Amino acid sequence: MNAFRWLLPHPLLTLLLALVWTLLQNQVSAGMVVFGLILGILIPWVTSAWWPDTPKSFHLSRMVTYSIMVIWDIMVANVEVAWIVLTKPNSKLRPAWIVVPLELKQPEAITILAGTITLTPGTVSADLSDEGHSLLVHVLHTDDPDGVRDEIKSRYERRLKEIFA
Amino acid sequence: MSGEIIMTYAIAISLLVGAIFALVGAIGLLKFNDSMTRLHAPTKVGTVGIGAFLLASMLHSFTYGEGSMHELLIMAFLFVTAPISANFMAKVNIHRRACDTPPSPPRDDTWSTLNVPEEDKHVSDTAAPSHRI
Question: Which domains can be identified in chain A, with CATH numbers?
């Protein structure tokens, strides 16, 4: 087990790098997959000094369902934002700052949450508090800032907690 | 043959959808009048706009030539980097006081962008007011 950890500090990163390399070739051939795997082993091994605390666990299947849900949300919210852009006059626009208190602790999880918030249109994650306990989010237009905060917490943060649980 | 016709329509529709979203993004950039709201339109609507363009490119390559999967990589890198640039533009806005001051966080002292080290306090005190809007 220790030898496995030493050789593959990030097994998922290895797979991801091999996949990206194969996609870059634009054709699947055994030689390129093997070369991708070699890169996937070498790169995490060389850069492991910059990954001091790896997340203890990571549920890939939950991450997949989470990604599909986020992509769906992005498409729905895009239409909503396009509608706001085209129909709302500036005087009726009510932008707001929202403070989301974070229960997540791992930097990786907070990064994914902030990225999700930014990718779903209408909200941008702007800043993190100096000790990382809350996230500052800017909303393009809302009548109910508390509702947006609760939705972020129940829809995204709860699932991310399960992914990194 | 009929399959090719259907694919041509699918390509045309995704090109149109992409163009419409890109146009809306540009309109939003021109229309909104403060820097934080202006950030929303192009960075967000752009992702779906470009996504539709890439889908059109993929459909075209699979219908008329050798299939190409590079678009998936472009998409992945776009989704990873777009939030970072939006985040940095938001941080610059906060730092230059170009937007409403955000409410202070409930548990910590301040937001990390507004957190000025002790030895730089005199610099920020003189620099900030000139950018205030």
Answer: 2-50 (no CATH), 60-163 (3.30.70)
